[in-house]
Design goal:
heterodimer, A: 139 residues, four-stranded antiparallel beta sheet, 4 helices, 21% helix, B: 233 residues, mainly alpha, 2 domains, two-stranded parallel sheet, 47% helix, 9% strand, globular
């Protein structure tokens, strides 16, 4: 059964992933397409950032040379992980530290959302103008 | 300019029905008065002239730590936050509403209108005067006022999003336990609480369970009063 992985809100189906308790093992070769992270000699890396694999806990991250435990990486990064085994569904969220760092910068974080006609808008489209960002709901 | 964001898992249809109803909708006069909506515009069903965005996953709520509606963030021309997420021109006077008749006493209505008017005036002052406005906060004061997310908040988000995913896939019963966990983890993130209630049962965002949660606040505010003017920093 394929596992659906939602990482940074992008859902991908990974055929050869295997859940074991709170661990999710997936082929190293599929890691980058699913998450943007990849295995390098210096550790698990994404863009300029690398997370060294602790030597004493290597077996928690890597197995048989070609499987990587995505849940272990997420725990190392402080990302919340929630999984639903009956639907083979795993969600990896953003860490509290990352959220706090975004707010502490005082720069308004960008986002891209559709309007009621389906046209996409980014906050950055309105740079150069004062913006009152206002929340509401129909419920 | 205004950029309005609807935290609405009902998607475009729910928001469109609210903003551009297919049939004329009678807006309750008390609601209209509290919102400060112009009667003539309501009668014409005039559509807003600013972007109305749909945020089904409450992404903006998470980015800016908005925990309720209506809330606002003021952003200057350079993309800097000059007022972090705060209650936008409303207050707790609605809690005195008679829940059987939906009526409020006149003095409560007047106090609510005054809060709204003061907030709108502050926005206008900022638009006119920019950083010299007494309502545009310094970086230090913005930092002081930002409510940083708690460690548990991202876990609540994860439960909310996985519940939403299951709900969209038609697994509505399986989604419930994630929605309940979201509410257990963050009972006073009202956007999550009311949205998950609404997904479980249409209309329940303003139903008895919501009012039980509201009443459980006791003397604590649902809409925290806003400190409008600068206090230093």
């Amino acid at each position: 059964m394929a596992v659906t992985i939602i990482f940074e809100d992008q859902a991908v189906s990974v055929e050869d992933a295997r859940a074991q308790g709170d661990d999710l093992w997936m082929p190293v070769g599929e890691l980058q397409a699913a998450t943007g992270w990849e295995l390098k000699p210096q550790g698990l890396c994404r863009d300029e950032r690398c997370v060294p694999i602790p030597p004493a806990r290597r077996e928690q991250f890597l197995r048989a040379g070609d499987l990587v435990n995505l849940a272990a990486l997420a725990r190392q990064l402080g990302q919340p992980v929630v999984h639903d085994d009956s639907h083979a569904l795993w969600f990896f969220g953003e860490s509290a530290d990352a959220r706090r760092a975004t707010l502490a910068s005082l720069k308004a974080p960008d986002f891209r959302l559709p309007d009621i006609d389906g046209n996409p808008h980014s906050l950055s489209d309105y740079k150069g103008r004062k913006v009152l960002l206002l929340s509401w709901a129909s419920w | 300019m205004i950029v309005s964001v609807a935290f609405d898992s009902g998607g475009a249809a729910a928001v469109r029905d609210f903003i551009r109803p297919a049939e004329p909708v009678r807006i309750d006069p008390l609601f209209r008065e509290l919102m400060g909506w112009d009667a003539a515009l309501c009668d014409r069903a005039a559509a807003p002239t600013y972007p109305n965005l749909i945020d089904e996953r409450h992404v903006v709520a998470d980015l800016y730590n908005m925990t309720n509606v209506p809330m606002a963030v003021w952003i200057d021309e350079s993309g800097n936050i000059v007022r972090p997420a705060e209650v936008a021109g409303t207050c707790d006077e609605f809690r005195s509403m008679d829940r059987s008749t939906f009526q409020m006493k006149k003095d409560a209505i007047e106090r609510a209108k005054a809060v709204r008017g003061t907030y709108v005036d502050a926005i206008r002052d900022w638009v006119a005067n920019g950083e010299s406005s007494e309502y545009a906060l310094s970086a230090g004061e913005v930092r002081r006022r930002v409510h940083a997310p708690a460690n548990v908040d991202p876990l609540a988000t994860a439960n909310f999003r996985i519940g939403q995913y299951l709900h969209r896939q038609g697994h509505t019963q399986d989604a419930r336990r994630y929605f309940q966990e979201t509410r257990r983890l963050c009972p006073e993130r009202w956007n999550y609480l009311r949205q998950t209630m609404q997904l479980e049962e249409d209309g329940s965002a303003s139903g008895p369970e919501f009012f039980r949660a509201l009443d459980a606040l006791g003397d604590r505010p649902f809409y925290a009063p806003v400190e409008l003017k600068k206090t230093g920093g």
